[in-house]
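Q: what does this look like with 2-oxoglutaric acid bound?
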Amino acid sequence: MKPADYAFFKENGYVSLGKILSDVEVEHFVHTFDRDRTEVEDHWYRIGHYQTVNCDALLTSPEFDNVIRHPIVMDCLHTLMGNAPCFSEICIRYMAPYDGELNRGWHRDGPRHWLEHPMRIGFVQLMLYLTDVDETTHCFSLSPESVEAEILETDAQLERGGIVDLYGPAGTAILFNIGVLHTATTRPTQEERKTVQVYYGHPNRRYLSEDSIIPVELWRDHPDPEARAFYSVLNNKTRDYLEHTASTGELPFEDTLALLRELDVKHRKRSE
Ligand SMILES: O=C(O)CCC(=O)C(=O)O
């Protein structure tokens, strides 16, 4: 990671890494994303103001492992976190064309900052745009916050830090501390937005969430010990799934997805 990027993150709580995917790679991952939305349509569900998501994308589209462990992203995470990161969650997210009012829902994610960490990082999110994002489309927005700054309530933070709308061509990657105030900006637009959003944590700390299953092919059976270690912080969704299949044996794919949806309801991630 460039020292200037590290310094920028320290001052602002995020950094744009620019376009990290070639046009050919973007095309490949858009194809994977579109196939997922078609083939496992029932597994996608509504969240927030105007998004649909699939948080089991590692199971339904294992190709996304190549985004999650992209070498540029892994290098930056290692530097920012001060140790090797672990996988926490992946959600692939879709925003359709929209003709309502501009909408922002400012928030800080779940466990917020880890104040003992030199960069206050408990968890980092990778926001990867698979479509072009500019002032005429939906975008990701954030209110910059230095690692030294007092943590403020929403209105005070917006007054102090202002709003940055993050734009870039398809293939652009942004890393941000999930404790920093942020939101999706939903704009009246004819364009779709497609994103891959990945959360990373510290391997020796509690897992982040119950959103994503981690398939056994990654944490148990992967031939590379570094990959196994990266995927080995298991959440209760993954443990519940393993417990269930210990008695039934391996399930057909459709039954696996149905079980994961039941677990999502149990963990209050989706309503039906
Ligand atoms: O989708 C976005 O642009 C924002 C995502 C977000 O708010 C979140 O992950 O908490």
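The chain has ten helices and eleven strands. The chain has one domain: 3-234.
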